């Protein structure tokens, strides 16, 4: 089998057109796009604060709107843990997080003068060929991992109506991938780049960017359980490294979207009460999350190995036209 079909790195066919080319330096790695002569730490802190504020503000607004509409429709089904967790509330929460994608692009353009599409990749576009290959390779593995949790952890079943079951299934299938993508553009995109611009060396920038984005990603999940904290931080750092090696957000989006979507769909199929999944307080996690940690670390290792000869993807330049 031709190894070129298995590689996670980009090839010459992924170069952008002149019309879509962003004002970014040629030959730079993904996390160094915002780096310049000045470190602009204050601006970076403002960017991260705006990102997090936008996330919680959109969640609050859409949660209030969903609750109001649910109240008017009489949707207070205790199946969803009271008056809050309904299909409409679920949709509002997913959309609120999905809005991080355009919000991250707007922040980057406003504070750094770099066009939003550069958050896709070093070629400033979403590489659907890489995205498709990642789904084919990661999909079977993550489907298997998604079945381990329900197999080893007890689930509380609830009596779902057919209409509710179909609605939640459709909402989860359509909106959860967008929610996962929003988190990737926000944390492995904007935050990773912002923190990566605070130091001079690219490897130091990689470490700082991965750690800062990991801490912020873990923090916004409001988890106090050590197993959940370990899982979210491991996921974030692993996806940051994958983003660096592939030069874009596509593979990270695939992994995150598969994890969230498959977990939601499996729970729906099993008629599981979704409320416990939202509880990340101390004592709610378990060592079973180590399996997911091992899975994402293995994927990170595979991506690194597949790009061992090419190295991390770079923004196109005249001297390296095919490394974007």
Automatic annotation (TrEMBL):
Give the span(s) annotated as Disordered. 1-25
Pfam family for this entry, one: Rce1-like
Transmembrane annotation, as ranges: 45-68, 88-107, 128-148, 160-182, 203-222, 228-244, 251-272, 284-305
Domain CAAX prenyl protease 2/Lysostaphin resistance protein A-like per the UniProt entry, residue ranges: 169-261
Q: Does the keyword Transcription regulation apply?
A: no
Report if keyword Membrane is assigned.
yes
Q: State a single Gene Ontology molecular function.
A: hydrolase activity
Q: Which UniProt keywords apply?
A: Hydrolase, Membrane, Transmembrane, Transmembrane helix
Q: What class of enzyme is it?
A: hydrolase
Q: Which InterPro entries match?
A: Rce1/LyrA-like_dom (IPR003675)
Query: Polar residues bias located where?
Result: 1-18
Q: What is its EC number?
A: 3.4.-.-
Q: What is this protein called?
A: CPBP family intramembrane glutamic endopeptidase
Its source organism is Nocardiopsis sediminis
Q: What is the lineage of its organism?
A: Bacteria, Bacillati, Actinomycetota, Actinomycetes, Streptosporangiales
């Amino acid at each position: 089998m031709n190894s070129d079909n298995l590689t996670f790195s980009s090839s010459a066919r992924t170069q952008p057109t002149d019309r879509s080319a962003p004002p970014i330096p040629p030959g730079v790695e993904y996390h160094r796009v915002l780096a310049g002569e000045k470190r602009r730490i204050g601006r970076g802190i403002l960017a991260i604060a705006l990102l997090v504020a936008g996330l919680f503000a959109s969640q609050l607004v859409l949660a209030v709107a969903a609750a109001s509409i649910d109240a008017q429709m009489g949707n207070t089904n205790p199946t969803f843990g009271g008056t809050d967790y309904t299909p409409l509330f679920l949709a509002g929460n997913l959309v609120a997080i999905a809005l991080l994608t355009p919000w991250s692009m707007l922040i980057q353009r406003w504070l750094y003068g770099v066009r939003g599409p550069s958050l896709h990749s070093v070629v400033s576009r979403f590489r659907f060929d890489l995205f498709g290959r990642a789904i084919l390779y990661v999909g079977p593995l993550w489907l298997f991992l998604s079945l381990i949790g329900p197999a080893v952890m007890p689930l509380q079943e609830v009596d779902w109506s057919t209409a509710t079951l179909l609605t939640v299934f459709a909402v989860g299938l359509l909106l959860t991938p967008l929610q996962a993508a929003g988190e990737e553009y926000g944390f492995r995109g904007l935050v990773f780049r912002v923190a990566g611009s605070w130091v001079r060396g690219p490897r130091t920038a990689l470490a700082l960017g991965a750690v800062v984005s990991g801490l912020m990603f873990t923090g916004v999940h409001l988890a106090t359980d050590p197993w959940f904290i370990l899982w979210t931080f491991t996921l974030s750092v692993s996806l940051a490294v994958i983003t660096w090696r592939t030069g874009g957000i596509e593979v990270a989006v695939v992994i995150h979207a598969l994890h969230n979507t498959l977990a939601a769909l499996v729970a729906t199929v099993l008629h599981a009460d979704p409320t416990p999944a939202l509880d990340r307080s101390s004592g709610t996690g378990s060592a079973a999350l180590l399996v997911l940690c091992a899975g994402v670390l293995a994927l990170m290792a595979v991506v690194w190995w597949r790009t061992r000869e090419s190295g991390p993807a770079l923004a196109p330049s005249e001297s390296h036209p095919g490394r974007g």
